Amino acid sequence: MLSCCDCFPCWDGDTEFDFHEPEPFSLPSPIPQWPQGKGFATGKINLGELEVFKITKLESIWSCNVLGGEAKGVTFYKPGEIPDGFYCLGYYCQPNDRPLRGHLLVARDAAASSRTEAGSTDKITLHHPALRKPLNYTLVWSTDPHNGDCSYFWLPNPPMGYKAMGILVTNTSEEPEVEEVRCVREDLTESCETCDLILSTESDMSKTPFQVYSTRPWIRGMFARGVSVGSFVCGTYLNSEEELDIACLKNLNSSLNAMPNLDQIHALIKHYGPTVFFHPDEEYLPSSVPWFFKNGALLYQDGKPKGEPIDSRGSNLPCGGTNDGAFWIDLPEDDDARNSLKKGNLESAELYVHVKPEQGGTFTDIAMWIFCPFNGPVTLKVGLLSIAMTKIGEHVSDWEHFTLRVSNFTGELWQVYFSEHSGGRWRDAFELEYIKGNKPIVYSSKHGHASFPHAGTYLQGSTKLGTGVRNDTAKSNFFVDSSTKYQIIAAEYLGDGVVTEPCWLQFMREWGPTIVYDSKSEIDKILNLLPFFMRFSVENLIDLLPTELYGEEGPTGPKEKDNWVGDERC
Known about the structure:
This is Vacuolar protein sorting-associated protein 62. By secondary structure, the chain is mostly beta strands.
C-alpha cells in the first residue's frame, strides 16, 4: 500500500498534497515479433550462475512531496509479480513529474536450478550459493515520526563474501523480514557508482540531510560486464569517490546470448531507425563516404605538397596506427570542386551503424554515425543579437552520431543519446518525438550538425545571460530516414566475418586539415559594429568559446572516438 508523507522541507502544511502516481509509459506502437534467435527479447538473461528477469510492473510503497508547491516529489517502488524461484534484489525510485519508466531485476541461482533438475549437488555451491538472505538490516535514514506518515530506509547486511544490491523502503519502523531480499555472492558483482540525483533535502523536521541517487556500473562500455539492477542508493552524506554499500551484478556468461543476431539487428533498425531532419537553411548537407571520395577528396601526407585521389572504398587510405599527423584528408584545390563538395549530397547520405553490448549485454547500443563533408561557421548569440561568423567554427569533414539503447530483455527502445559537439545527453523514450510508429525524430543543428530531440534553438554557452553559440534546429524537406538508408559497419560481438568493416573505418587520422587562422580580425570587425555597452559581454563570450573554434581541425573517424569502445559522454 502506498504511503504519502509531506514532512520534507518547504512543505506548506496548509496546502493539500495533491499526489498523482506516475502512469506507466508505453511506446506509440506495439513492439513487433522479432526474428528468431538465441536469447534476445525472451524476458530472461543468463549471467552465468545467475538468471535475471526484468520487472516493469512496480508496486508503489511510499511517496513524498519534496518541495511542496509545483514540485511533484518522488515515489519508491518494489517489484510486483515476481516469478517463482526469483528473488528481489532492491527497490526503485523515481521523480513523480515523469511517466513511470523504471525496472528492477530479480534473480535466481541458475546453477542451483539446473543441478536440482539434474538431481546433483556439489559442496562448494551448497555452502556458497549465488544468492543468500541478509543477516539483518541497518536503518540508513527515516523521516521524523512526529510529522505524519513516514518512511524508513533499510540497507541489507550481507553475509561475509556477499554484497547487497539495493535499499528497501518501509512505512513502519519494523525491520523488514530477511526473506524480502537476497544478497549476491561477491564474485558475481561489480562496483557501481551514483548517477542521477533523484532527491536531496535538508530539513528542520529531520536531524540529518538525505540524498537519493540512481546507480549504474562504475565501468561501462563494450567490454564491461557490470549490470545495473535498477535500484537506488541513499544516505546522509554520499561521496561520489567512496565505494558504495551496494553493488551491480556481473555477467560471467561470455557468450552474451541475449545480444541480437544480424537478422534481429536489421529488424531493430527498421523498426526504430530515426528520421534525421536538417535545418531548412542548411548549406552543408551530409553525403555518403564513397560519394565524398569519388567527388574529389584527397589524401595528403606530411612533407608532400600534392594530395592523391582516394578510392571510393577508401582502400588506399593508411590503416590502423594512431592520429600522429602523418596523413590527413582535404577537399580538392579547385574552388568550384571544393565548394561543390562542401555542400554534400543528401541523396547518397546514409547512417553508418555500430552495434555493441552495454551493461554486460543486457542492453544493445546501436550507434548511428552520419558524415558531412563540411562543418559550417557558427552563429553567436548575444542577448537579442545574433552574429553570423564567416570563419569561426569551420572545418573539413564532420562526424556526428546518436545512439539507440535497446533492452535485450524485450527489444524495447529504452533511451536515445544525442551527441552535442563535445558532449551529449541521454533522453528517455518518453521524452522523444516520433514520426512513424516507434521511430524517433533527430534534429541536426544548422552548420554544426549536433543532434537534438526537439526543434528550437539550443545555446552552447550561458543560457542565463543569453550568450553563446546558437544551435538552430527545425523540420525541413532535407532529411534522411535511417530505417532504410543505413549500413552496418561493425558489430564485433557477432564474431569474425559476420560484418565486414569498410576500409575507410580503419583510417585513424584526421578527416580534414589543421589550419590556424587569425580569428581576432574577424572578432574585431564584429566588436566595432556593436554599441559600446555590448562589447564587454561579447569579448567575455569569445574568451569562453572552445579553442577549436579559432581554427580548422578535421575530426577523426568513428573508430578513433572514445565512445567506440566506451560509454557515451554525458
